[in-house]
């Protein structure tokens, strides 16, 4: 297997997860079925997914100088990345997230304190120029300060590095930034917020895709959960079917999809094949508890893919 190079810039959060029979009402205290603490944040999760899906990964992030930051360093050092660039600040805590997972569908409700993730400076980004230039793919999200994301995307553009932007969690971004991205990967909610078009099925996703192309976006993958994922490139659309799964925790599904997608594109796969693998990879992920800890291996995703196809 060809192991391409993926540079992931993004958030690290410490996740504190409570498994519930249902979500609590305002003012209500409920006994959790279980709880766990682990590494999270969209950037770190996607980096782990890209790594386990077969890529060589350089992760770039920022944490606080606190106990959660010590936990982050220990986790990232042991993950197996090719390289880690971890900036730190004493001004803010390490990002953290409080997560409820409830019900038979394992839906989640999340409160995030981004902390140090929102304090990445221009000087810190500039130090990452060689890593971005050396990568086949830059994968980033919107869980950091937009100024840093814009500067990183500009560096990738200057160096011919393929840029994937996962616009999650949603924050307003200028169309000029979207137009620089090679591949945008919103889910239905993010697509609705980007376009003002209510996306709830494949037909409405196609309408939203046209609106995004009109903003200058070259290629799109709109993830639609159990309905699959819509690929749209230069007006041509294809639907990648979702793989069947029995969900335990859907928290890391989007991160699994994006990391696996980046790994396959870096290895030279075409977009349709990469998206199909990413769909299989995400279906294995949701059958396990936790985000970073639930990311499957390349072989496990391939097994799911070949069992169904």
List keywords for this structure.
single chain, 309 residues, alpha/beta, UDP-N-acetylmuramoyl-L-alanine:D-glutamate ligase, four-stranded mixed sheet, 11 helices, 13 strands, 25% strand, globular, transferase, potassium, Ribokinase, ATP-binding
Helix-strand layout with pairing:
Layout: E1 5-9, E2 13-20, E3 34-40, H1 42-52, E4 56-64, H2 67-78, E5 83-89, E6 95-102, E7 107-113, H3 122-127, H4 129-134, E8 137-140, H5 146-158, E9 162-165, H6 175-178, E10 183-184, H7 188-195, H8 202-214, E11 219-223, E12 229-233, E13 236-240, H9 253-266, H10 271-285, H11 298-308
Parallel strand pairs: 1-4, 1-8, 2-6, 4-5, 8-9, 9-10
Antiparallel strand pairs: 2-3, 6-7, 11-12, 12-13
Describe the structure.
Its cofactor is Mg(2+). The chain is an alpha/beta fold and 309 residues long. Helix content is 37%, strand content 25%. The chain contains 11 helices and 13 strands. It has helices at residues 42-52, 67-78, 122-127, 129-134, 146-158, 175-178, 188-195, 202-214, 253-266, 271-285, 298-308, and strands spanning 5-9, 13-20, 34-40, 56-64, 83-89, 95-102, 107-113, 137-140, 162-165, 183-184, 219-223, 229-233, 236-240. The strands form 3 sheets. A 6-stranded parallel sheet has the order 5-4-1-8-9-10, with helices on both faces. The longest helix is centred in the last third of the chain and has 15 residues, at 271-285. The radius of gyration is 18 Å and the shape is globular. The two termini are 20 Å apart.
């Amino acid at each position: 297997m060809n192991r391409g190079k993926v540079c992931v810039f993004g958030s690290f959060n410490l996740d504190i997860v409570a498994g519930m029979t249902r979500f609590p009402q305002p003012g209500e205290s409920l006994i959790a079925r279980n709880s766990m603490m682990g590494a999270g944040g969209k950037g770190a999760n996607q980096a782990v997914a890209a790594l386990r899906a077969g890529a060589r990964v350089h992760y770039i992030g920022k944490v606080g100088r606190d106990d959660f930051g010590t936990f982050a360093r220990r986790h990232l050092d042991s993950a197996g990345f090719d390289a880690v660039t971890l900036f730190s600040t004493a001004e803010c805590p390490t990002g953290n997230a409080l997560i409820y997972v409830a019900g038979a569908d394992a839906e989640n409700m999340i409160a995030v304190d981004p902390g140090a993730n929102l304090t990445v400076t221009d000087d810190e980004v500039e130090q990452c120029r060689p890593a971005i230039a050396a990568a086949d793919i830059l994968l980033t999200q919107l869980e950091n300060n937009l100024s840093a994301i814009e500067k990183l995307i500009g560096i990738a553009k200057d160096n011919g590095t393929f840029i994937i932007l996962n616009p999650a969690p949603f924050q307003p971004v200028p169309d000029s930034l979207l137009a620089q991205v090679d591949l945008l990967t919103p889910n239905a909610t993010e697509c609705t917020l980007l376009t003002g078009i209510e996306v709830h099925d494949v037909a409405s996703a196609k309408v939203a895709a046209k609106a995004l192309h009109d903003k200058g976006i070259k290629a799109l993958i709109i993830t639609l959960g159990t309905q699959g994922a819509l690929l749209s490139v230069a007006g041509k659309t294809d639907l990648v079917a979702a793989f069947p799964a029995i969900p335990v925790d859907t928290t890391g599904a989007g991160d699994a999809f994006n990391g696996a997608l980046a790994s396959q594109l870096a290895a030279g796969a075409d977009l349709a094949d990469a998206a199909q693998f990413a769909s299989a990879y995400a279906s294995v992920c949701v059958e396990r508890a936790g985000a970073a800890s639930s990311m499957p291996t390349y072989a496990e995703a391939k097994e799911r893919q070949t069992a169904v196809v």
